[in-house]
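Need a sequence for this fold. Nothing fancy.
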């Protein structure tokens, strides 16, 4: 009988709000995993975080963490503009990274990450935790096995509300440091799950607007999406919707499957409606549901540790994350150019490869004229 594996040693870079979700997931998985050290530019915040989660070592920068700790994984929980340089630093140190969304600010940055990953052989993973809840995994298995028939129609809505004060934080609502508005920072979780279930998108036609919020980016976007398998979907991302909800509905040949939640779902948040003549599928759906745990970081971190322990590639890998990020870029490109954008169209020196805004945000031009 082989000896049990030593605990996974992980680091956390950034100790702001989202880092707490990561640390809570890691703590829930103890003693299988241990937080070896944390990094933050703010010593007081870092020390308070370390004390709360029982971490012995606090560092002022990532280089210090990598120089002093042997790590199996590092969680990057910093503002978006730092994700690419920190992931590259981790790869150079030989440490796989789990990066909060968005993985990078631009497609060009994702391609830079891919080049370093190919050079070092060290993976970069992205937090898309909604893929890993029990109901979503069960739905993926049913779809993959062909039990629900062809995917036909989907609706993907992230209708959230953020007041003006939300954007007081200097990195929010700016193309150069956040990458975009709700399309990049909020709805991306929902449409990532849409793609995980329905397959690869092939074309998008979109609109984006700044309706209310004091931002450089959009606060609303809407898109019509065609998939490679012929399915169609609508995707709506909003930060101006007082009645908040996150909703995904999938219509297949033999059933409709819908989930309504806000920031995480349980199995009870899903409904399953079989098509006439396929009522037996209701029992098949019920077979794979859990007892009501809420989807979140814990699901993905557990899946990553399982994969690492088994010597398998964990998710969500860089190639998959790029496809989701490419959809965000294509949404902006379609909205600002006024044309449909095909998957794979944004390449090379295209402005939307280098910036999600493409340098042609319509309300930015209006603002410049008024100034």
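Here you go.
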């Amino acid at each position: 009988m082989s000896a049990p594996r030593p605990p996974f040693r992980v680091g956390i870079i950034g100790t702001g709000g989202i880092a707490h979700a990561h640390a809570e997931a890691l703590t829930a998985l103890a003693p299988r995993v241990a937080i070896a050290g944390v990094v933050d530019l703010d010593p007081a915040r870092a020390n308070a975080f370390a004390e709360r989660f029982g971490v012995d070592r606090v560092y002022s920068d990532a280089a210090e963490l990598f120089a002093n700790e042997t790590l199996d994984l590092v969680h990057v929980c910093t503002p978006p503009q730092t994700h690419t340089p920190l992931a590259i630093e981790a790869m150079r140190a030989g440490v796989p990274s789990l990066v909060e969304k968005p993985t990078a600010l631009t497609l060009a940055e994702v391609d830079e990450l891919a080049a370093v990953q190919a050079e070092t052989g060290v993976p970069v993973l992205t937090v898309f935790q909604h893929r890993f809840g029990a109901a979503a995994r069960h739905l993926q298995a049913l779809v993959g096995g062909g039990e629900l028939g062809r995917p036909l129609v989907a609706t993907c809505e992230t209708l959230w509300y953020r007041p003006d004060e939300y954007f007081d934080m200097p990195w929010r609502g700016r193309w150069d440091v956040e990458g975009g508005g709700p399309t990049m920072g909020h709805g991306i979780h929902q449409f990532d799950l849409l793609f995980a279930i329905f397959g690869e998108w092939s074309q998008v036609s979109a609109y984006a607007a700044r309706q209310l919020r004091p931002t450089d980016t959009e606060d609303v976007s809407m898109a019509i999406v065609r998939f490679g398998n012929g399915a169609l979907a609508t995707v709506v991302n909003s930060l101006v919707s007082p009645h908040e909800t996150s909703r995904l509905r999938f219509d297949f040949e033999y059933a409709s499957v819908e989930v309504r939640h806000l920031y995480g779902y349980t199995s009870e948040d899903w409904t399953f409606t079989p098509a006439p003549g396929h009522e037996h599928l209701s029992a098949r759906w019920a077979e794979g549901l859990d007892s009501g745990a809420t989807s979140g970081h814990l699901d993905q971190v557990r899946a990553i540790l399982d994969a690492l322990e088994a010597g398998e590639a964990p998710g969500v890998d860089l190639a998959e994350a790029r496809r989701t990020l490419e959809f965000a870029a294509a949404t902006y490109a379609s909205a600002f150019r006024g044309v449909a954008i095909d998957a794979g169209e944004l390449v090379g020196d295209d402005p939307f490869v280098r910036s999600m805004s493409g340098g042609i945000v319509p309300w930015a031009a209006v603002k410049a004229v008024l100034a």
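For context: Residues 91 and 122 are 5 Å apart (CA to CA).
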